[in-house]
Amino acid sequence: MLCELFKEDSIDQYAFNAYITMKISIRGFRKTIGPGILFAGACIGGSHLMSSTTAGAKFGFALVGLILLTNLMKYPFLLVGTRFTASTGISLLEGFQARNNLYLPLYLIVSLITGTFTIAAVSFVSGLLLTNIPIFSGYPPMDLSIGVLVVSGLILLVGQYKALDRISKILVSLLTLLTFFAVLSLINGGAEERLYSSWIDSNPSPWKLSNLSFLIPLMGWMPGPVELCVWPSLWMFSSSKNNNYIPTLAESEMDFNLGYLITVITAIFFVTLGAFTMYESGDAMLSGSGVSFAQNLIRIYTESMGNWARWIIVPASFAAMFSTTLTCLDAYPRSISAIQVLLRKKREKINFSSASEQSLLQKWIVVHVFVALAALLIARSGGIGVKDFVFAAMTGSFLTAPLFAWMAMDTINSSLVPAKHQYGLFMRFLCWMGLIFLGGFSLLFVANAFFGLGV
Q: What CATH number was assigned to the domain covering residues 34-451?
């Protein structure tokens, strides 16, 4: 019908072609969107709910600039997986192996260590947040954390990537909308002048070496660890199979940029929530046991905003942590199983859709569930609080960031990638600035923690 309407007039024919192109583009983006949202789901967790909220509570808006700068400095490295796979048709892990024989074993070692710790940490916080829901309030937090782990494992084992994709889209949409609504209600209520002045004159000031123990974890998971650059690369294969569509480079990067933008915006949302409701009380929020943290978080919000806020903050907080638990429990085993295949097959291309490799992925998911459970039990017996548990994982992620940043930058600018898809002058400059930023802060932290600089 449309063809008949436009076929006689050249201008109308041009309009028709534009219409068809736009329709195809929209359809392509709809089929492409997914890995970027999963990336956002993985990022919006501890770094936002705990670190960003605490940043606002302790220092008002003073650290907004540092949060934005950290997101900017990590962007070119976290984008690498998406651009590399869209440009070459192979995963970034395969690129690591082809580029340098040391890259893949290094990534495997760190993933085996940080994966267990991170999954345990985020499931721990998810379980704690469930204690604020009346029907779960009578259960021990550790039992709820175990329940979160088991449910997440079952979702991935039974529903696989399709379930992960759909649930993550729902959770990320929910937490973004709920936190936006909460922030809007607070802004409309106004704030004291001292809060607004914290943009340039925070009391206390965050710019002291004694605050590195907080700033490094804040940057470590902001918006996520640099090793996450591999995850969108792996998810792209499952997404293409699920949607029966291979996206273009532009579509893939649009999906990633959407997810990245969501992580940045929600980070500022949580800083704002912490600043408006808890300014100069951040230490009190994170003091005590894990149960105290979960209760303090909700209590302070509801005291500042009213009891109605419980119906926003509780689901938004849990959605943030559960989406992180779910995506991490998929991504770490997915990375490790892919590395195992690559090391065993000696650089043969991964067939992510094969039955044997799907079975290997499921086995690693089960292993991570049980090892994370063991880590939780050890933490409980050792009296480790939620602050120490999560912030230790964040610190480790930041200290390994320069290594993964170099690997990502070296691979995307290698001969493995067509010249036109390698990073240009600006992105290369941003990479080097990011390396200096990440390496400099890591050295500063080591000097402060182990040699007493600034103490």
A: 1.20.1740.10
